[in-house]
Fold these 4 entries.
Entry 1:
Amino acid sequence: MYDVAIIGAGPAGLTAGIYAARARLQTLLLERTAPGGQAATTHLIENYPGFPEGISGPDLMEKMARQAERLGVRVELGEVVDLAGSGRKIELQLAGGGAVSARTVIIATGSEPQRLGVPGEEELRGRGVSYCATCDGAFFTGKEVMVVGGGDTAITEALFLTRFASQVTVVHRRDALRATKVLQEETLAHPRIRFIWNAVVRRIEGEGKVQQVTVASTIDGKETAVPVEGVFIYIGMRPNTGFVSGRLELDEAGYIRTDARLHTSLQGVLAAGDVRATALRQIVTAVADGALAAVEAERYLAGHVKEW
């Protein structure tokens, strides 16, 4: 029986672990893949305080994970597939049949990239279709690639890909980017980045690997085949909340609803980071959520939380 079981080892989960361990709570952190979450797939983080030159996502998350383990957080690989109980005993069912009991639970499972849902996307995933430039960019040295999206992540990764690709084509459904101004300025001025505005992807095509992408104009529907060998998709995120569907109150997009102190609709269960309904999803806000969730778990165990 753990005092706190944390699900997810991204920025929110690792920070919650650090705070819980410092409070001398017996803490288990469960992660289905590897510590770091989406932050670990970002090649350069420039807006996290304390790193004036920026820091790579893998480096930042490795430091957080090392700090949590040094403080005594037990980190284990395991995927939670169901959650039951409330009050001072919550059961987590794991894939493969195992189970974990805890007095409190902090859900910090984050979100994952949204899929386009077009023909060829799933068939060619890992064969030119990617959702992580940091992971796969080097495979496309000297080749032409496409980035789909117009937000901060898409534009940051398009800039990163210019380290390898001979040309990066950005496809955006509107006629202006949503990314922050400084990123827009750098990208629009880059000689190896070109844009296809007011367009959406219709098909990803190729024999065994990506060879071309067909895009369609959002204005007149005209289709154009663009020869590329890689497609990097950044069109938004979806929360990893399937395992709590029907157990916790979610918003219309599937994010976990919490109160101001991060308590969910189930007593003893809190949520932190990108998995919860919130106005801003950044590493810095996930870290803040993780700290607050751990403090609230400690208060709950001490009997200081009276209303939910």
Entry 2:
Amino acid sequence: MIVRRRAVTAVWAVAAVLLAGGCSADGGGPPGFGSTPPAGTAGTAPGASASARSREPVPPAKGSVKVLRTVTEGLKTPWGLAALPGGGLLVSSRDEGTITRIDEKTGHRTESGTVSGVSPAGEGGLLGIALSPDYASDHMIYACFTSASDNRVVRMLYDERKPAGEQLGAPDTVFKGIPKGFIHNGGRIAFGPDKMLYVGTGEAGRRDLAQDKKSLGGKILRLTPDGEPAPGNPFPGSPVYSYGHRNVQGLAWDDRQRLFASEFGQDTWDELNAIKPGGNYGWPDAEGRSSDPRFQNPLAQWHTDDASPSGIAYVDGVIWMAALKGERLWRIPLKGAGQAAAPQAFLTGTYGRLRTVLPAGGHKVWLLTSNTDGRGRPKKGDDRLLEAEVR
């Protein structure tokens, strides 16, 4: 049972090896591979004309990454990252349950407040954050966190005019009932170009949940800002957008409004997937590439020692993927027809585990390290927020 903000509603139904995305048009669903963007939004559908496709960014075959500076250091278990429209970055602390504002020019930090109800343990705690699509008028911050009973999404009023530590309003639960576990809590949230809220979830260590369309575990969910199943979802009345996932922690859209997601494998293959509405991504029956026609094959895959991916970002024709165990930043240039060129690795071992990557405008990104998460080897100054130039 899923309890939303104003109602209680039952929900139902619902090596690098490079592969073509097996996607077909579905005639006007929400943005994604094999769908048409909704009216009033930018971008072109996968079936657009050759002239429209030719305007897509063409990334260079070989890229580069240059870390320009350390913005700030001494962060405790940083996880989520969001850029404020007037300047400043918000970062969530998984274990402390706090949100902190960072001045991106000076590195000065101001604690905005503590999110009540967070119950950190293992991989759970205060995870992804995102700004409301109407942030300019409502000043709402969305957050995904692990409570004592489940994983849930809340929204809070953010008022930086108030004293430090008191700038967050009381959490308003938008959506709850996502399975929690000591591992595999997913937790990345993002608003898409359609202004709907996308939530990456894990199967909480219960493999069977990923293939169960009635479960919220091992899925990508698509919700309205109020937490209802979004219009046009592939399974009517259900928040489930795609399923068969092990642990989704990265979400990003390209210039054509196509959704990509990173996913942790178990022992063999981590994945970058091109998400098709209603698509089945195979877990636990398939890990990485499969010959089973029921499952969507990954756009790219990596051995788990080389990746263990968390956040992803799209910049000018390239997906940038932060790797935890792999301790590197992966560059995956996109090509036409749902394909990718050979991935390249950067910063290998330089900054340790990388948790989150966020576009910073132009050819720049923000990077969060994750060495204080219990699995890293923290050095003096960890964890850090970095500014990097990427090509």
Entry 3:
Amino acid sequence: MPTPPVPEGPRPARRMGIRALLLALLLPGLTALLAVDSWSDYRAFARINENAYDQALLEPLSALDDSVGIDARGEIGLRVSFEVQAMFDSVQALHKHLRVTLTPLAPPGAPERTLMGVADLPPPPAGAEFLPPPASFGGAHGGRLLFYDAAYRGYAVRVAVLRRDIENGAGQRYRLQVQAAESTGRRAEARQAWLRHELWQDARMLGLTLLLVWLGVAWALRPLERLRASLRERPTNDLQPLDARGVPSEVAPLVDAVNHHIDEHREMLAEQASFLADASHQLRTPLAIMLAQAGYALREQDPERMRETLHAIMAQLARSRRLSDQLLALAHARRALDEAGTPPLADLNAVAREVVLQYLPLAREKQLDLGWVDVRGEDAPEGADAPAAPVRAQAAELHEALANLLHNAIRHTPAGGSVTVLVRIDGGLAVAEVRDAGPGIAPERREAAFERFGRSTGGAGLGLAIARAYARRNGGDIVLAEGEANAEGGQGLCARLLLPRARTQ
């Protein structure tokens, strides 16, 4: 029967690459910057273009103004020369118009008279402000100038108008108005041509920038590509550090972090191999002894001596069982915490008191004086709700750590001696101490006592290693100091479990 296909889970979303990310960040900003810059340049060009075309309109306007004069009869007349018409025809516009009018100032409302040009050219807007002409204007003095846009015969025109007052030979005053108009098609074409050129230039700049970013990122990532290729070619068991030479400085911290992780993993594997080798050695010795004892029991004919051999095998089995339990405890203590979030609140004082009650029968069996000093003093109330020595830790693991410390103290303290367990608060620390009157450990050998199978204190050498592993697993540590002096001159040993004190509110 064929195996049904396993449904595939959702594929992880593809992350944006560095190139795409840089382009996504740079493209909008660069486009907006070029757009603002092009718009600013376009407005500046439009003003320059408008001024240039307006200046071209002033020339025929000035020539027409100079052509106005008083004839022999004392009337105001206009003498338009061929040069004026040629000058106006040189203006590059599809439609061009000139107009000169006279309007009597008195009486008010007198009709105007057209001296030249079309009669329906759009007049200046009502209320428009006339300004003095520029210094380069060559017409008569005293006139006022205005430029305005209008529509004439279905197309847009730009009109320049000059106004000034003039008298005829009889002293009658008139308002002279000279207009020059041209269609705005040429102006619009010039602006559009410049805008197309500017947009094309911006597009080329934008494309070149994107190409440089793409090539720059590709060039900058070449060391990472080489690093990736070298990792793919590596054997599975190769845990040598990565070669960070040539890697960009921004990526170097990441490579250093990976190398640090590789070093920790290599050390962990080496420690695991050492642990397995030591554990195998420690278990092989009692197994070999029991195998020899079992063989001896099989050959023994005397029932009494056979019973003695079986008792010896049982004792060896008990020691092997404790050794196996300690190995499992050490493996558990050195494993990383699986629980997420903040550890629960525990009372170190209550945990230490439970350990003392648990080992009280063993201490009495060895005729030891097992003492307990509560952190709250001798008159501590029973069953108090508030923790006396609050810490953030697993209570079961603290119990295991203190149990190993107390078991070591009871085992190494001679009969008739004393062992004291106390809890105290030292600033921001909660401290649990196990003091014994045993032979103690020399100061230079105390740190080595935490090595597994070190046998600095006899036995399998796992008790202190397990206790420290559990302490560090919960954010604390264990230190060794001198304990209580004994009759044989030994200084004893004091094992201190240090944990950060937790706030209960």
Entry 4:
Amino acid sequence: MAQTMVQVNNVFKSYWRDTMEIPVLRSISFDIPEGEFVALMGPSGSGKTTLLNLLAGIDRPTQGNVTVAGSQISGLSDSSLARWRHDNIGFIFQFYNLIPVLTAFENVELPLLLTKLSKAERKKQVELALGIVGLADRMKHYPNQLSGGQEQRVAIARAIVTDPNVILADEPTGDLDKKSAEDIMELLSQLNAQYKKTIVMVTHDPRAAEKAHIIRRLDKGELVNGDGAR
């Protein structure tokens, strides 16, 4: 039986605007087994990205606990959280977030610069990651020399180069044409099936969500269905 990779226990999240409290998430609880592929769906403003940021340790819950890869991250210090995030999380953004003056190789290498790996070891891991996403022949190209789908593949290579426990993807196909979106979803499915990566993906696209094993729906900050298994 698979171990639990993500555990969210009675999580609330609010933001403050002056003296007004704005609730975003209310009493969220669920588990994600290791190696699972989960899609988070719901209308804009339902709290999907906020929940993803809590799983990444980018934000902290107002109340409740978030445990990922065996660490209760809601209680970690900022410095410990940064190290934990580097070691455990690969984040994929809608708009790629590549640095335009760096090549594909250099963009993917960035997370490894914080490690003690030698230059040769970094090179090996970057080449492996770019090979997995099908861009071994584009590593010297700059972002403006790549298509949108290729840029997202570079971003995915950057997310997996540290061999993270969990891949978090925020609308990974939202800025792509239909064919590129399909290719990216096939790649994520491969990372899940072949490399056993636990993936949590926020998406508005039902076609993208079909690649997930479990769909969880948020509405007005609350989970609105059962286990969501497909």
